[in-house]
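Action item from last week, closing it out:
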Amino acid sequence: MKHLNIIIKGRVQRVGFRFRTMEAAYKYGVSGIVMNQDDNTVYIEAEGEEEALEKFLAWCHRGPLGAKVEQVDPHEGDLKNYSSFEIKSRTRWQNNGNKE
């Protein structure tokens, strides 16, 4: 198992990116979270087997119809043992102390 923190830049908000990311995560067997950031990027925490994460990252480089992905920045992080994949609200996530 591996954990990735991923920041996606480009036209990635208001195009259904978070919902389609959740669908892709289920398709590839990846768990974690996705949320919009205040700087118009999308933030993802993804956990899974290396092969599943590679397929998921390949999808992130394309994104859903209507998105224009310009940059994908993945960084390894500590496992959080997510059991599913969820869309999070940045406000609630930050208020719970889970994100810097």
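Closing note: The domain at 2-88 is CATH 3.30.70.100 (Alpha-Beta Plaits).
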